[in-house]
Write a structure and sequence with these properties.
The complex is a heterodimer of chains A (601) and B (1059). Chain A has 601 residues and is mostly helical. Chain A is built from 19 helices and twelve strands. Chain A has helices spanning 2-18, 34-37, 41-59, 62-71, 84-88, 134-142, 156-173, 181-205, 227-245, 264-281, 286-292, 295-306, 326-331, 341-347, 447-461, 467-478, 520-531, 538-544, 578-583, and strands spanning 75-76, 95-98, 104-108, 208-209, 225-226, 313-318, 338-339, 399-401, 419-421, 439-445, 549-550, 562-564. Chain B has a 22-stranded antiparallel barrel. The chains are: A mainly alpha (601), B mainly beta (1059).
Amino acid sequence: MKFTRVLRGVAAAGAAFLAACNSLDIENPNAPDNQKLLADPNAIESIAGGTLRSWYNAYEGVEATGPLTTMARTYSASWNNAQMRFYSSIDNPGTPVLNASGGTSGYTPTATWHRGNGAEPFGTWQNDPNSAQRFQVEWFWSGGGNEWGTPGGYPGFYAGMSSANDVLKAIRQNGLVIGDANQTKRDEIIAMLGRALAYQGLAVNYDSAYAIDENTKLDTLDAFSNRKYMRDAAVAEFKAVADSAAKYTFTTDAGWMNGHSYSNLQIVKLANTMAGMTLMYYPRDPSEVTSQLDAATLNTAIGYLSAGMDFDFVASGDGCVAWCPEQATWFQDIGGGRVSTRVSHLLDPATQTDPWPLQGNPRPNSADKRLGDGSYGNGDNDGSSRETPVRDAGGGSYFAWSPAAPFRPSRGQYHQSNIADVRYDASGNQEGNWVGVGVGDYPAVTAAQSDLLLAEALLRRGNVTDLGTVVTLINKTRVGKGGLPAATIADGVGAPSDGPCMSNGILARSEGSTNSPCSLWAKLLYEKEIEVLPMAASPFYEQRRLPWVATCGTTFPCTGRHVQGLVPGTPFEIPVPAKELQVQGKPLYTYSAANPKSATP
Amino acid sequence: MGGNSLPYRKLVTATASLFALVLFAGAAQAQQAVFTGKITSAAGQPLGGASVGIPTLGVGSIADVNGNFTFTVDVGGRAGRQVDVIARYIGYKPKQLPVTLTAGRVQHDFVLDKDVLNLEEVVVTGTSEAVSQKKTAFSVGVVDNTQIKDAPAVTPLGSLEGKIPGVSVQTQSGQPGGEPAIRLRSATSLTGRTDPLIIIDGVISNLGLADVNSEDIERIEVIKGAAASSLYGSNAANGVVQIFTKRGGNLAEGQTSFTFRNEYGQSDLPKKVEGNMSHDYQVDANGQFLLNANGDRVEKNDKISDLAYPVYYPQLDVVFKGGSFLTNYASVGQRRGNTNFNASFQNTHETGVVVNLKGFQRENFRINVDQALTDRVDLGMGAFYGRSTADQGESAFPFFGLRFLEPNVKLDSVIDANGTYNPKVQQPPLSGNVVNPLYQTQQYKVSNDRDRFTGTFRSQYRILDWMTFDGNVGYDEANRAYKAFTPLNYENSQGSPSSGGLTQQSDNNRSYNINTSLSATRQWREVRNTSKVAFVYEDQTNQSLAVTASALTVPKVPEFASAAQDPNSPIQPTSKTETIRNKNAFLVSSFDIKDRYIVDGLIRQDQSSLFGANERTAVYHRVSGAYRLSEDFSIPGVDEFKIRASHGTAGLRPQFDAQYEVFQVVSGSPQKVTLGNKDLKPAFSRETELGFNLNFLQNYTLEYTYAKRRTSDQIMQVPLSASTGYQNQWRNAATLDGHSHEVALGAVLLSKADYFWRVGVTGDRARSTIADLKVPAFFIGPDGTTAMFHIGKGEPLGVIYGDDWIKTAAQLDETIKAGKLPGTAADYQLNEEGFYVAKSAYHTLGETPLKAWSCTDAACTSSTSVVRIGDANPDFTMGFTTNAQWKGLNLNGVLTWNKGGNVYNMTRQWPFNEQRDPVFDQRNKPAATCPANWDPTVDDPTCPFSTGRKPVTYYQTFYNGITPNSYFVEDGSYMRLRELALSYNIPERYVSRIPVGGFRTARLGIVGRNLWTQTNYSGYNPDVSGVTDSNGGNPFVYRVDYFTYPAYRTFSMMLELGF
């Protein structure tokens, strides 16, 4: 009897054990892994295409472009999203403006503006793991989540580089064939392009970085390569892309730039423009222009840019679900960032005062058709910051005027502006789905940017025979878009220290004079201010290498109005992020007003 | 699971169940001893439901409603054997009667004394069998129904607060239906949550306790760390909370019990936090704003915020409302023959205190049935179904926007006949972040619906008198439907319409566990051994499906039919499936020697799919012992004195995807996220617990426990070099040490026939230190952007780092030495607020506080502004409970005291950028009249700055780009009256006059929750925990005020009827 009971007990326990025969080796069904991906041709192809999305989302991320462009005083924002206000603020309230009753009606920042003038942290990249501003240092490097919650956010340039290397390893080392030889080559070229774009992004922003290829042993990676090495690696890779793409006929999948396909010949031109741009944007400050854009380098850049883009390299945003032209969500929105008054003054010096006065700037009447009278869309007279006059025949093609300026002046009058950039608002009235909510086409690089870089390189080379080409390149947009009087060789070459021209044909630095005609340099600089404005962080790379120009000259400090160049005290490049330094066991450092950049390699 | 495998009736009825297993079939044997009698209290009241029996033979009976009992023993070969007949009843001290077994009738009545201090309480959690608290070798906290029933919390975890030392309950949000976080003792995790293992009626629950109502709870047992929880292995380093629901096991034989409890009351916000009620704009003679040509207000030249607004609107009064609180509870239980059951229904509705929101509504059904099938087989089953809905006020985020509004904005103005509130609340010059909370809560619709089913089945088979097989199966399922609807043309505060959006998410979580065990209890002379071998299988599947439409084309249709069919605004589906399996086995053996020496040991092996492929097995153990000193030594005044020691190990499992290499597929393209780790192990916690239990002077108890724990192999998501392409990897990367002191004092101050007054005091102090860290020191929490809690080797866990402002001469000197300030100390001076400022800027528009820098090397070649600015750890926490009875009156109260510990007030910092904090208001400082043409950049003794009034730019410095800084670190001390309940038992002679229902008992009372809080904290609640990042985060470390739903108080009336 007892034995029978024991048997029953053991049997019952045994039944329970049977229920537990399921394996503990459970696969993760939610996400693929390396093993699954790198041996699969379809997966490898999607990874190759994905390098372009990685790059685009990082390149256009306002977390980096916002601080850089507002520091350059091309855009302006009092919003502190992406720490724009933090990084673009200055530490000098300016000169009191006395009103009629003898009191002050505000403060006019002057050319003595300076970042980091004894008031940390302005003018310092906050490369500290505790700082709320650390993300701006990390963004291009390793990315992070963006404000739209885009999956994966901005993966950073290294993510694209790593994915590109995975593709190239699979194709070159493992012999993976995707479809046929031509398709395989196409994907290889796109991966190379993704890698080159990553190299380029690191080279123009950081003082040093890793240039990793498919043969690099990550386990033994230690020292960073300096920025010059990164520049050369990027240019070499772009050249390789151009050379390869010229040999194979293909069209990229539309999904790789979300709705936009590019032929192999366009990829060749894109690579050429990016190679030339890398060389041109490499100098950190005016002194490096001299040392780093030597004759040979300029000739190389001219070679690339002459064979550069005659089209815009565009992706379409999907509302920041996966594709996010995030810069546009802030600076193509009248209620968001604005065009800095430094630039809007160039557009219409008669109405758009710089710095912004307490009473605001009135409706413009610019000779430049890109601004015109500032009317826009269906008018949105709702009393909000989106208020605009109903569009009329004089409305500008790029810019709009709003009587309301965001934020209180106490947050810094220099953040205020009445001019908004609406150039890529395809909807025409900022309602519903427009690029301001991340929907629609937004270019990363344009033909105009390529042309103007070429014009600059030609001017810097100094061959008189190039001037005709320079004039043509400037007039493409100056006349074609702005409707301004054409530049001519007779304008004279001038120099970068001329600073930009204004729409009224007078040098911005000499606006008090009635006879300060603009040189070719000045007109080129004006075109760059307007055309390069929405091109990610490019305005920062433009301004940092231009000489400081104020209405009282090119020597700092002086009391004149700021016209060109970075506000003194602005750091010229970004340090390796603290997170990376910590992982590598290296000491933390940063760039600041006192130490704005690394030594020239 | 050891605790799970014990008989359910034991779990529920505690001692009574030991004897409820007797089988009567086959009793008609020739040699029988028949035991009869009556069990009463010392006051002569019959104790129906009391148990009586002979444990060593596994026979016994339950007293009927008159206290009478009868049970029969088959004497057989046991004739002449000495046995003890023991009578027990919950809340009374047991009595035993030694008898020599012979055939025939044994008549004996038992008179039981009240156990006013619960000294005879029997616990089962972490032990090999049901055991009296007198003989536990580690600390087991118990909260029983008598401590819950007067003011039952909406969620059971709320019932633990202040009642058990070492138990910390953190309210992460005051939102109706929100579930607090709980931590037992010191932290076990650097970066993650520290929730204990929850077991409900034997079912391991991974789905929280938000669905469970407190009225159903018979008792809660808590063991706090590895020294006790080793029995539960790799999921138990945070301790175990085991909940037992009512099963009708306490009822007398033949008794049917019915309870109907209603509570209705009102909620309100005890404190309202206003913003800056002044401004710094120019006004005309009538106090109206002067506007410039563009219609913008113009700031005064002094930028001092010291003028009254032309009009004020009571914004807080229109956003916060008085809410209602309602619970209905009905329960029926019965014991008859071999069956007992309890069935209940509970309905609760909390509206909360925010207008436009309906709050939280829940309906629960539960039934538990036990059935003795044969003389050796018992069965039990339980089923629970709960359904709840909440409109998730926090998701609408009104608490954020409310902090940015100027007081002259009329929030309740409507713009159409439908009563739509005006969304456009920005005023020129414009400011960011302002929103109309009324518009938000009215238009943005969020619903969070849950339903939960839990089923249990257990069987017990007494194979031999000394050997028992237990088998349990538990099933737990929760479904959640979340929906967030932003209507088409939903406007922001500037009046910009949006294209709307719709998100819908369905989560399905289901798990089952199977426990089997074989227990043996043998007695050799004065040594009693209980051993158990068990196998536990756990299987869990979590699935979720979410769809988001980022643009809508049809107004007022909250379904995907209205979604834009636009590739540029795609409808985005996501889904996830997680399967988790665990196989665990353990052996536990306890020795009770001479009733005074207790020795216990166990070993357990866990295998889990959550561990890395190369580390699939983990082994845990426990050794513990107790010595009842008072059994050997007579100490005057001491009734019971036990010393105890326990050492054990337990683990913490990684989350599902931690071991895997993860690529995120975005727009069809895989993107690297997490590097896999096949060597990932569970965190390993080893704990030593020492303590004593002292009962003295008949009416006092004192318990002290010291626990020291080390949790190594901390599972952390560590950043990787960007060169890898991956963002991070989960690793075993740190060791966390913790130690804690816990004290509990209980006293019965009055115990007479008509009077009873018991008080309890609990206190604890816990500290954790990061002993080892295999990654560079880093900052974390409370969200993905702001990082202020420093994780560094040798650092206490919970310290807050950030910028500091120069307040001392030493700070000034060091900042100058670091080269961060020009000049010498003579160039700076203290201002009225205790901050050093530049002497040249003092009392001018340019006056600003200065940031302190600290040298990081002796020569001060490098420096940092980031220093320790606070510590979230309280100095200690205490709880005070009282239960007083006078005749029919009953008073229960719980007061908690949290002394020390800092809170970071981000709810203040963020609006600083918009001048919305009350500190900006300078009207309380002396005014000054100065010439109209004064220059605010010069210190003029006749002008406003000279009186200490500061410009808005001065205070805006503290905003500090939202980077943490010492200005917002506040003392988080508070004392709170959490529960206060006063009830009156209406005499039966009045109750019987109720014409319907046949009720015999009635209780009328008033109940208060969170009635009173004493604190110097400036925000709504000092017991806050900020948002947590995507990996969870530690709510006990993240003491950050982050725009959460404020906790509110509730005051209600209660009526309970029964028979």
